[in-house]
Write a structure and sequence with these properties.
Radius of gyration: 25 Å
Strand content: 15-25%
Number of helices: 18
Largest sheet: 9 strands, mixed
Distance between the termini: 48 Å
Helix content: 25-40%
Structural class: alpha/beta
Mean pLDDT: 91
Shape: globular
Number of strands: 23
């Protein structure tokens, strides 16, 4: 039977429940325990797929094609366990499921209520997720989104309270993450917010077994004892969660405070000792780089870098495996559009990530042209690949007004369009209503593609078949590929499609030092233990660019991808 650890949060949001849950799961996994993670989101949206990145941050895509909370990315990276659509669910999904059952008559005409119907549904979904695909987890670490005291979270909190009773307290552990702020004018840390947050949790009926205290400085013994006294937990179960310069230091830090030992004791587990050698090696590589590169990430959500969380982590992983400090310079594409490309001078490489909507697109195209014409290593992901194709069509293939129908439905040269818009052999399209339902209309999840032998893509991946995760609606229009290829664009990989023939998955330029675009999102499969071959190749290309620019006679002409 699966045992459960429930992680709740108090005082304020964004304290790092996801990192705490992922780190605990990583430590338990290092002790030989089979783990999984779940995220319960209290918002009424069915999923975050149509939510603005400014509100929600990144949308993480699982292998089975679910659009989920970004914390699932942390879970995968920390535990090396693949998440799926059952590992993240929302209030919207729960209510949708209950209402469907009511419409079918499953409740036999009874009054449908939050208790027991909504809470029972929540408990059922938690149990199903823990069961996995035939490999039941020994411990499921469940993060409850939101902050204790929010009305939206109450059904989730009531459900996990009930689970503590029905499963027995030796099968359930509650961890509460709070803030212990330092008040500069008073010169001391304040425990009162934590006291009130735990009081609120206890009024709901949940007594935490561990209180994690997020703080920017060490917790004094007096404060620790005071929190223990007022929250009814032992002093050793009041654990500081200190700010750190790398999230990959957190598993070792929490282990040093005895968190995993407390959890194992509470759940009556007797696993082997934790082995955090991998994490120590990762931190050592991060802390002692041999090189440093500057990469410009030209996007439109740069005011909230959480929008590119998996991408920035993938670059960090590549830095670990190339012993390089990767400096990510977030560049607002609207500034490039308005002021030009001077802000890109001195960069060792340029990356244009995915995105939706017209805003800032022309700035991204300017950045792509700058990278192409100046021989700067370029990586375009999803929209970044589509815009690279548009830029090449405009300036090298003689299609001056080439565009995507996403940005200009009336473009005379729709080199990027919806598959359903491809109508005639000459590339013209059937105009469609672009205001249709946006939910669930994308190509999602892991899908295979065939890699051209001898291509840059083949040298990077070392394979002729690659399966990466997708999240997009628009595709490179096959009708224009012959003209683009005749102008020098190389298609390095294609994916099969039952309705549109082979789809363009990777593009490259043979005459460029390193120019690469991919329709998928490789950042979703990057892992700190192994890195990702595409990001490692990209960072190596940036290093080669840097060496060439400073006149390194040994490495300037070295092969960029072995």
């Amino acid at each position: 039977m699966t045992k459960f650890v429930f992680v709740t949060g108090g005082v304020v949001s964004s304290l790092g429940k996801g990192i705490a849950a992922a780190s605990l799961a990583a430590i338990l996994a290092s002790r030989g325990i089979r783990v999984t993670n779940l995220k319960l989101d209290p918002y009424i949206n069915v999923d975050p797929g149509t939510m603005s990145p400014f509100q929600h941050g990144e949308v993480f895509v699982t292998e089975d094609g679910a659009e989920t909370d970004l914390d699932l990315g942390h879970y995968e990276r920390f535990t090396d366990v693949k998440m799926g659509r059952r590992n993240n669910f929302t209030t919207g999904q729960i209510y949708e499921s209950v209402i469907r059952k009511e419409r079918r008559g499953d409740y036999l005409g009874g009054t449908v209520q939050v208790i027991p119907h909504i809470t029972d549904e929540i408990k059922s979904w938690i149990a199903n997720a823990a069961a996995g695909n035939g490999a039941e987890a020994e411990v499921a670490v469940v993060e409850v989104g939101g902050t204790v005291g929010d009305i939206e979270s109450l059904p989730f909190l009531e459900a996990i309270r009930q689970m503590g009773i029905t499963l027995g307290r030796d099968n359930v552990c509650y961890i509460h993450l709070t803030l212990v702020p330092f008040i500069a004018t008073a010169g001391e840390m304040k425990t009162k917010p934590t006291q009130h947050s735990v009081k609120e949790l206890r009024e709901i009926g949940i007594q935490p077994d561990v209180v994690l205290c997020r703080a920017d400085r060490p917790l004094l013994d007096g404060d620790r004892r005071k929190i223990a006294l007022f929250t009814n937990v032992p002093p050793e179960a009041v654990i500081p969660a200190l700010d750190t310069d790398s999230i990959y230091k957190i598993p070792a830090a929490l282990h040093a405070e005895g968190l995993d030992e407390i959890v194992c004791r509470k759940l009556s587990l007797s696993p082997r000792p934790a082995d955090l050698t991998t994490w120590r090696n990762l931190v050592d590589a991060l802390s002692h780089p041999l090189h440093e590169v500057k990469i410009a990430m030209v996007g439109k959500y740069v005011d909230l870098t959480e929008s590119y969380k998996s991408l920035s982590e993938a670059l960090t992983h590549a830095g670990i495996h190339t012993r390089s400090k990767v400096g990510i310079h977030y560049v607002d594409s609207e500034i490039v559009e308005r002021d030009g490309t001077d802000c890109l001078k001195g960069m060792d490489a340029i990356l244009v990530p995915g995105g939706f909507g017209k805003r800032g697109v022309e700035g991204k195209i300017k950045a792509i042209r700058y990278a192409r014409e100046h021989g700067i290593p370029y990586l375009g992901i999803c929209l970044g690949m589509q815009l690279a194709v548009i830029e090449y069509a405009r300036h090298k293939a003689g299609l001056a007004h080439a565009n995507s129908t996403e940005f200009d439905p009336a473009t005379p040269h729709p080199v990027v369009a919806l598959i359903t818009e491809w109508q005639n052999r000459d590339g013209s399209i059937e105009r469609r209503d672009h205001q249709s339902d946006l939910g669930g209309t994308m190509r999602l999840g892991a899908q295979p593609c065939d890699v051209v032998p001898g291509s840059l893509a083949h040298r990077i991946y070392g394979a002729t078949t690659v399966a990466e995760r997708h999240r997009h609606r628009y595709e490179v229009n096959n009708h224009y590929l012959p003209r683009l290829e005749a102008a020098g664009l190389t298609v390095g990989a294609r994916a099969k499609s039952a309705t549109a023939g082979d789809l363009c998955e990777m593009v490259e330029l043979a005459g460029h030092p390193w120019f690469f675009g991919c329709q998928f999102h490789p950042e979703f499969t990057s892992n700190p233990r192994r890195g990702h071959p595409l990001f490692i190749a990209f960072v190596n290309a940036a290093l080669e660019r840097q060496r060439a620019s400073i006149g390194d006679p040994v490495r300037a002409r070295a092969q960029l991808v072995a």
